[in-house]
Design a protein that fits this description.
about 450 residues; mainly alpha; 21 helices; about 70% helix
């Protein structure tokens, strides 16, 4: 009993420590725009900052649904995810969001534990949570970032992991009752439509699995798989995605994907394990047992390399699946002494890195709030962004922290920054409140 209490206490402490970091999340350009209903005459989402346009705030879930029913044809096919984004951006503060986001993060960890099916010892738990903190890249965007990124990646990732967990039960011959099967089928459809960077690899894995096991597969697996595939198609083949595809001039090799993957310790470790153990019987058996986990890694990789890479956060699905497989292999490893030493080393690095990262996130948050406070007190909207710009530059010098733990602003589009923030602060009435943020006072 005391042992279980210790394990639960460690888990709760980790979630609370995540929340302390997450408190310093800030709103970003997309958040400011998603707080308003997309008008029917907009050709794309960037035009929401156009001159002489009065925006209508999102005040309810109904407003968010109306907005996304338009956005689905113009900007993005993630109807459900972006409906949630718009509802939160329009009705919740960033402080309220970080509390909800921390709960979703706790659910994410629980689902990873359940999918790995690892024995929940203190050693394994410390190794898992420390590895997530150290090895998973770009958490400043995907886990502790602004509302838009966190919902698109942490929340959508959690929804995807829930589908995988329930699907694995079907593979293990745990059949559902009719009401449960109906609910799971509906959820499979929803899960498939959440996020294309997750669903593309999974739908291919489900399709191959049905062909591979067609002689022994049960009808429930077929029903749920088809529901997920249909949901995925609705997201992937939305009119908006075809427009975005045209904007990037079609398919082609994305070298940034290679750079993003080479900066990921999780992916590199996965590749090393594959190279070393590819002919090993244990690895082959693990591949068969984890087909639904491993297959999406390769097809999502192909997708981001050749079709639609938009940023390093798009690689989250690959990194999460790699981490799950790594811990499946970790569970098979029998040298307890090596496990203890590795756990102590990884946990020590995680603990030593915690406060410096918290300090940097707070500095960046405070620099951002300085701009907001100055704008709120300014009559003409002309404020100095010198401290914020300096903080951006300082953080970029520390690539490890910048890439993994802080979602920083880009200097490439200050005009969009100023217009979007103006719209947000004036509740949609003007895009001209904020001016000369970057250079004023130089």
């Amino acid at each position: 009993m005391k042992y279980k209490i210790t394990v639960i206490s460690i888990f709760i402490l980790f979630v609370l420590s995540f929340y302390l970091q997450n408190r310093y999340a800030i709103l970003y350009n997309d958040d400011w725009n998603y707080a308003f209903i997309v008008n029917q005459d907009y050709s794309n989402f960037q035009s929401t900052a156009d001159d002489n346009v009065i925006r209508q705030p999102v005040n309810s879930l109904h407003d968010a649904i109306v907005s996304q029913s338009r956005d689905y044809f113009k900007t993005n096919g993630r109807f459900i995810v972006h409906t949630i984004v718009q509802y939160l951006c329009g009705t919740k503060t960033i402080e309220q969001f970080t509390k909800i986001n921390s709960v979703i993060f706790a659910l994410f960890i629980i689902l990873v534990i359940r999918i790995i099916n690892i024995k929940l010892t203190i050693c394994n738990l410390l190794m898992l949570i420390s590895s997530i903190w150290i090895l998973l890249p770009h958490k400043g965007l995907t886990f502790m970032g602004n509302i838009t990124c966190s919902v698109n990646y942490l929340w959508a990732g959690t929804g995807t992991l829930l589908f995988i967990y329930l699907y694995q039960k079907l593979i293990q011959k745990e059949l559902y009752s009719f009401p449960a099967l109906f609910l799971f089928t509906v959820y499979a459809f929803i899960a498939g439509s959440l996020q294309e960077s997750f669903s593309i690899g999974i739908l291919v894995a489900l399709f191959i699995y049905m062909i591979w096991k067609y002689k022994s597969i049960n009808k429930q697996i077929i029903i749920v798989s088809i529901a997920y595939i249909i949901g995925s198609f609705i997201c992937i083949f939305s009119p908006a995605n075809f427009r975005r595809f045209d904007d990037i001039d079609g398919a082609g090799f994305h070298f940034n994907s290679v750079l993003g993957l080479l900066s990921s310790p999780t992916f590199i470790l996965f590749i090393i394990i594959v190279i070393i153990l590819i002919k090993n019987k244990i690895f082959i058996q693990m591949f068969k047992e984890n087909f639904i986990i491993i297959t999406p890694i390769f097809f999502n990789l192909l997708f981001t390399l050749t079709i639609a890479y938009n940023g390093r956060h798009q690689l989250m699905s690959i990194n999460v699946f790699c981490l799950i497989f790594i811990f499946r292999m970790w569970e098979k490893y029998n040298n307890q002494q090596v496990k203890y030493i590795t756990t102590i080393a990884i946990t020590s690095i995680a603990l030593l890195s915690y406060y410096p990262i918290l300090k940097e996130r707070k500095k960046y948050h405070d620099a951002y709030m300085t701009i907001i406070d100055r704008i709120n007190c300014s009559h003409d909207g002309i404020v100095s962004g010198k401290e914020f710009e300096t903080e951006n530059i300082n953080i970029r010098k520390n690539r490890i922290i910048e890439c993994n733990y802080i979602s920083i602003f880009s200097f490439q589009n200050w005009d969009f920054f100023e217009k979007s923030l103006s719209i947000y602060l004036t509740k949609g009435k003007s895009n001209k409140l904020v001016k000369d943020v970057k250079n004023a006072g130089d």
